[in-house]
Every structure is written in C-alpha cells, then in structure tokens.
Specification:
Elements lengths: L48 E7 L10 H10 L1 E5 L7 H10 L5 E4 L7 H7 L7 H7 L1 H9 L1 H6 L22 E6 H6 L8 H14 L30 E4 L2 E4 L4 H15 L12 H10 L4 E5 H14 L5 E3 L25 E4 L6 H9 L4 H9 L6 E4 L2 E4 L1 H4 L7 H8 L19 H10 L16 H26 L8 H10 L2 H16 L2
Organism: Paenibacillus auburnensis
InterPro entries: Bact_solute-bd_prot1, SBP
Pfam family, one: SBP_bac_1
Length: 522
C-alpha cells in the first residue's frame, strides 16, 4: 500500500534520581560537572546522565519502547521510569521520607491539593522561571510566540511550575456518541440528532434488535467528562462559564430535567442496567457482541470496535453520531472539549534533583523542531521518510505487516499525546473512514463559549475548594446514580440542590469566579 503524503507545519520557529541536596534556587543548580555552557549548548549532553521519571498513569515498571531509546540517543540523557505518581501531600511526604522522589514528575498539577503554588511552596517541585531562562530556550521561544499558551501554563503570580502538554486545535475534541450504523440502516432509521430521536432509536434497538443494553457507557460519560446526553438540556455536570459567570451544572434546572429523562430511559430498559459498575472492557464486549448498539467514548473506540468485529467475520459498522440537542437543527450547548492546556501530563522537576539542568534540557528537547518532528511522526527511516521536505508515513505505519493499527505502531515510536510537548496534527491514517470523520461530527456544539480556562486559585483558596468539593463530588455522584436507577425521585432534586448549598457550593463558586477573573487579567 502506498505511503500517505502528509502536510507538515511546525508550530515553532525555531544523574541519579536520589534526593539528597535540595535545590533552593536556580543559582544552585549546577548539577554535575558535565553541564555545558548554556549559551553554546547542543544535544546530546555528555556524561551518561540518568534521571528518574514518574508518571501518574503508569503502574509498575513500564516497557521500554523505541521512542525511549531514540530520546536517550538524541539528548544524551537516560530516563529510568518509576511507577505511578502521587497526588496527595501525604503521599509526597512518604516519598520524601523514603528518599524516593523522582527527578521529573508527570502529573495534573492543577489538581494537586492547594494547587501548583502549594507544591512549590511546600518544597516538592521547583519554580521554573529562572531555569527556563537558563536551560529551556525552545520552550521560552514557543511561549513568546504563543502568548495564549503562555497565559495558560502559569499561575496568577507568573509562576511556571511545569513543562506543559498542549493539545492541537483539532486534538481538543476526541470523544462523543458512537452508534451501530448497520442497525440504523437495517431499521430504516436516520442518525439520531435530538433527545427524542435517540429515544426512538434506542427503543428500536431494544424491541427489534433485542439489545439487552441498547446504550451502554461508564459513569464518567454521564455529563462530567463530556456533555453526554446532558448537553441537550443546556447543562454539564461540572464548573463552566455562562455569560462571564462561573456556574456549577448540577445546580441548574436543566440538570433536573436531564436526570428525569435518564431515569425514564433506565426504567424502560434503554440504558445498560449495569452502567454504574462496568469497566471499559465490559463496554467493549457489549458493543462488539450485539448486546449494545450505542455508547459514548473516545475516538479510538470506533477503530477498535470496527477492527474487533471485522476480525470475527461479522458485519457491523460503528460510526460517530452528533451530541444530541433538544430541538432539531439547534446545536447542543455541550459536548466534549478540552482547553489547549488542561493541566494533564505536565512535567514538574523535583526540588531535590541533583541535576536540574539535565531535567530541563531533556524536557526542552520536545519543543525543538527535531523533537517536535520525532514526537509527531516518529523515527525517520522507520515510521516516515521526508519527501520534498514533507514527512510521508512508511508501510510499517500505513500497511503494518503484523496487522497493527497506525496508532498502535506510532505509540511505540512517538509521543503523539500525553507527553510534555506542543501537539501537532499528524493526520495519522485510519483503517476505517468513520474514525477520521468523528471529530468533525463531535465538535458541532456550543461548548467553546462555556469552557472554563485552567484557572489557579491561590494555595489558601485551593485548600478550601478541595475541602468543599470532596464532599460535594461524592454527594452529586451518589445522588445522580440513585435518581437514574430509580432509587430516588428527580422530583426531589430541589432538596438535593439545597444540600449542595449547605455543603458550601456557593463559596466554591465564589472562589472559581475570583480565579476566573484573575485569569482574564493575566
């Protein structure tokens, strides 16, 4: 199969992990004697440096991949990966006492108790401002050229605390409703666009296709990570912005109406009776076995489901379908949309590292032109070749001899996501056209105008916010499930709203509003 020619546009113009000897300031970050003169620095760094790296999403010791070997060869820095990263102050304290803090933390620092300012104040991670000036010229240049990104990745007082993972414009949308197109065709039904049309389709799936769970999904898709079906009612189960004011979706009248509808669907047997407890693998099984005809999930689910069914010789076609609206022809208020910087996969540097320069240099490589090309397209001569200055994927990616999907191959040779870098659109070829069409379908919402940017409450505000929201988060999730499953009545929802007020949600809204206004004034 011929390799696919791709457009290529860069966004840029341009040792031991033990924890003795805490770094107090940038002037004390000489590291080992092998540090190169900053003004004349070039990769790779000499000296055989090794750093430790902790990723919040990893468990155990991860497999070492070709991309890891390539990074080591280019930067001169070997990375020894540890297990999952802690998020609580208590876990950090235990690591500190054990001497087990890594050199580099990959974490969602916006969710750290007290916020990223608190992590710096407590002496766990370094404030990076001076270090960026000294050792991260590529990140610095990128931020100078993209002030909208610069605004996102610092706190209100201008503190840089991590190297960011920034999504590309198209990469901000990656999830939504998925449906069996072949079932729609067989039943002579159109792709559902409204809540009423979804009810008609799911009823047909139950009665005519004998689906035991016409729509299945995990609880994270109820209305918090995505708008799910809630977006049709003008709400989402989280904080968002409405006409310049921060609101909390669970307090809004539309959420009551949404829950009433979901409770009716559940009672009618349209929603998977096990949705409150199932995992992703079970959802996959139900979608590919014919137990379910629709779900809400990420883009790669479409490729995964189509591939799985094709492998069994069955005929099925999974496609993306729009987020539902209340009225045909109108856009739903919410779908799925991330900020370019959502805080995830952000790399901070331990205040106890012995080689801050090496950590900075290793992270800064992702923001060079060469690093960006590697993270996006992988290794030249292996996953792509340059033709007329443009990268063209090889058959290893496009027509893999082992039958691997292009995303599976690239996950070994590149960092296309969830890594501290500026993500580029890589136009990765999909085996099924439905996969490539999904984003344009899911992005048709009004979500952008409601998106709360990555605000940073002060350390004191963040502590107070965390105390309030721990109780409220537990309360709303339990209440939501009880209403949908018919254990509690949605008619009592006003009582639940008052309980949220009693738990302090108004104070949380005041904190979020103040942080939002400070963000706008950065």
């Amino acid at each position: 199969m011929a390799a696919v020619l791709l457009g290529f546009t860069l966004l840029f113009a341009g040792c031991s992990g033990s924890n003795n000897g805490k770094i107090e300031s940038a002037s004390n970050t000489t590291g080992n004697a092998i540090a190169a003169d900053a003004a004349n620095f070039s990769y790779p760094m000499p000296g055989g440096i090794e750093l430790t790296y902790m990723n919040e999403t990893l468990g155990g010791t991860p497999e070492r991949l070709p991309i890891d070997e390539e990074y080591e060869g280019r930067t001169g820095i070997r990375i020894r990966q540890l297990g999952g990263a802690p998020m609580t102050d208590q876990k950090f304290s235990l690591l500190l006492a054990s001497g087990g803090l890594p050199d580099i933390f990959l974490n969602t620092w916006l969710q750290y108790p007290g916020g990223p300012d608190k992590a710096v104040e407590q002496g766990y991670i370094l404030k990076l401002n001076d270090l960026i000036d000294q050792y991260a010229p590529n990140l610095k240049k990128t931020l100078e050229q993209h002030p909208e990104i610069d605004k996102m990745i610092k706190t209100d007082d201008g503190t840089y605390y991590a190297f960011p993972f920034i999504r590309s414009e198209t990469g901000r949308v990656y999830g939504g409703p998925i449906i069996r197109q072949d079932w729609l065709d067989e039943l002579n039904l159109s792709v559902p666009e409204t809540i009423d049309e979804w009810h008609t389709v799911l009823t047909a799936f139950k009665e005519k296709k004998h689906a035991s769970a016409p729509v299945t999904f995990r609880t994270l898709f109820l209305g918090e990570r995505t708008g799910g079906f809630a977006g049709a009612f003008g709400v989402m189960g989280n904080f968002y912005v409405d006409d310049g004011k921060v609101v909390y979706g669970y307090l809004e009248p539309g959420y009551k109406e949404y829950l009433k509808t979901m409770a009716r669907w559940y009672k009618e047997g349209l929603i998977d009776k096990d949705f409150a407890s199932i995992d992703a693998a079970t959802v996959d099984k139900k979608m590919t076995s014919g137990e379910s005809g629709a779900t809400i999930g990420w883009q790669f689910y479409i490729e995964k489901y189509n591939s799985a069914v094709q492998g069994t010789g069955k005929e099925a076609s999974f496609v993306a379908t729009p987020y539902p609206s209340a009225v045909k022809g109108q856009l739903p208020e919410f779908g799925q949309l991330d900020n370019a910087y959502a805080g995830t996969s952000s790399a901070a540097i331990s205040a106890y590292t012995k080689n801050a320069e090496a950590a900075m240099r290793w992270l800064d490589y992702a923001y060079t032109e060469e690093g960006s090309l590697l993270n996006t397209y992988g290794v030249e001569g292996v996953t792509y070749n340059l033709e007329n200055g443009k990268p063209v994927y090889t058959d290893l990616v496009v027509n893999n001899p082992e039958g691997l999907g292009s995303d599976q191959v690239m996950s070994k040779y590149s960092h296309s996501t969830n890594f501290p870098m500026i993500q580029q659109d890589n136009n990765l070829p999909a085996k099924y056209p439905a996969t490539g069409k999904s984003i344009s379908i899911w992005k048709k919402t009004n979500h952008e105008q409601h998106l709360l940017p990555p605000v940073t409450p002060t350390a004191e505000e963040a502590d107070e916010m965390s105390s309030i929201m721990n109780d409220i988060n537990t309360f709303v999730k339990e209440t939501e499930l009880k209403i949908i499953m018919g254990i509690e009545s949605a008619d009592n929802y006003d009582k639940y709203v008052q309980q949220m007020r009693d738990l302090g949600i108004e104070r949380a809204l005041d904190i979020q509003q103040a942080a939002y206004e400070r963000y706008l004034n950065r």
